[in-house]
């Protein structure tokens, strides 16, 4: 997970700094395709080696199309492609892992886009399913995943080639299954693979009539926001139970380019699972579980939406946390004049802490 976060952070920087399109904006039909993967279960923890039994293949079916070019951020990101992919793999371990499925909405964000192809980064976030999670009696050696339903994340550098109605693509990427510590164990499953795919367009490409890119001046004034979020997690050991987790995050965000922004803020966290790690807290009021932290952040901006990462230290916690700093990766979407919607995952380096589903106010 630490390597995955580092790769994502590096990718965000590259996408903000080095994108170019030489392709004319066209109305793109939907394309249907298939992709073959070949790789292995990446044991990012020494204890995960028990699950590695060989190389694994995977099959993915997907549907996608390129944006129409009628919004400013389409041009700022060199006319990306959006789609949804369904993947199945057994990770070469039918007894302990079984089958892994994921349904993944994604964006292909090109570093360089040309009429006949391009090179870029495919980034996706969706829902995953593992057929054989941890079970104390039936599957005790499955020490990576404790739930059937999980989140799924993919990061994949990819090269694409356009040949008439056909698109050919090749890439090397990581697929990650995790439940965000909703149910332990939650080391996560990482599938590292090389892949090759092809897609066929369902219609003809035609000239679009897009709105021209808007070159409005970048505001020097920050955007302020306060977001309240809710989640659940389990900590300590498996079967210790799920507890509610709440967070309140306030921040100021400065736009530093048309595609990126930086932020600074303060966070309050309150999670009942602290009492499972520190039994002496169980007799105290829930308010005493409150933690205070600061954070700095970076975001890629997509019109009203953004993909962001936060990191910062705890300045107060009633009992020691798993780490002195916390991390957060997620998405936010602005609606109306002042609303902001939030989905994010809070973690401590390689260890997920809890999901945050929230709503907030911005001005």
Characterise this structure.
With 363 residues, the chain is mainly beta. It has two domains: 204 residues, Porin, CATH 2.40.160.20; 140 residues, Porin (Beta Barrel). Helices cover 7% and strands 55% of the residues. It has three helices and 19 strands. The strands form three sheets. Strands 3-4-5-6-7-8-9-10 form an eight-stranded antiparallel β-barrel. The longest helix is centred in the N-terminal third of the chain and has 16 residues. The mean pLDDT is 89.
Provide the fold topology:
Elements: H1 2-17, E1 20-21, E2 26-27, E3 31-41, E4 55-66, H2 72-76, E5 81-89, E6 100-114, E7 117-130, E8 149-163, E9 166-178, E10 189-201, E11 206-207, E12 223-233, E13 243-255, E14 260-271, H3 274-277, E15 291-302, E16 305-316, E17 325-335, E18 339-348, E19 351-362
Parallel strand pairs: 1-6
Antiparallel strand pairs: 2-11, 3-4, 3-10, 4-5, 5-6, 6-7, 7-8, 8-9, 9-10, 12-13, 12-19, 13-14, 14-15, 15-16, 16-17, 17-18, 18-19
């Amino acid at each position: 997970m630490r390597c995955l976060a580092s790769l994502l952070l590096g990718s965000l920087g590259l996408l903000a700094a080095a994108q170019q399109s030489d392709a004319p904006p066209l109305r793109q039909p939907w394309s249907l395709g298939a992709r073959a993967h070949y790789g292995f279960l990446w044991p990012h923890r020494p204890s995960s080696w028990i699950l590695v039994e060989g190389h694994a293949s995977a099959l993915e079916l997907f549907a996608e199309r390129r944006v129409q070019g009628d919004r400013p951020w389409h041009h700022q990101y060199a006319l990306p492609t959006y789609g949804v992919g369904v993947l199945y793999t057994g990770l070469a371990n039918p007894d302990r892992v079984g089958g892994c499925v994921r349904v993944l909405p994604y964006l292909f964000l090109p570093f360089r886009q040309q009429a006949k192809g391009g090179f870029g980064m495919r980034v996706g976030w969706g829902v995953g399913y593992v057929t054989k999670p941890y079970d104390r009696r039936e599957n005790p050696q499955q020490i990576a995943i404790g739930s059937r339903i999980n989140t799924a994340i993919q990061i994949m550098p990819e090269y694409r080639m356009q040949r008439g109605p056909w698109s050919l693509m090749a890439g090397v990427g990581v697929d990650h299954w995790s439940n965000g510590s909703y149910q332990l164990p939650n080391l996560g499953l990482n599938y590292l693979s090389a892949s090759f795919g092809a897609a066929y367009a369902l219609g003809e490409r035609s000239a679009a009539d897009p709105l021209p890119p808007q070159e409005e001046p970048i505001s020097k004034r920050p955007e302020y926001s306060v977001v309240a979020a809710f989640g659940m997690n389990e900590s300590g050991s498996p079967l210790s139970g799920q507890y509610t987790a709440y967070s309140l995050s306030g921040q100021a965000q400065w736009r530093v380019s048309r595609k990126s922004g930086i932020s600074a803020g303060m966070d309050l966290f309150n999670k009942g699972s602290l009492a499972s790690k520190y039994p002496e807290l169980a007799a105290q009021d829930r308010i005493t579980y409150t933690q205070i932290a600061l954070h700095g952040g970076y975001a890629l901006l997509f019109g009203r939406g953004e993909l962001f990462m936060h990191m910062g230290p705890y300045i107060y916690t009633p009992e020691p946390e798993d780490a002195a700093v916390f991390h957060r990766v997620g998405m936010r979407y602005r609606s109306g004049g002042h609303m902001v919607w939030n989905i994010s995952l809070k973690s401590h380096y390689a260890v997920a802490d809890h999901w945050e589903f929230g709503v907030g106010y911005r001005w």
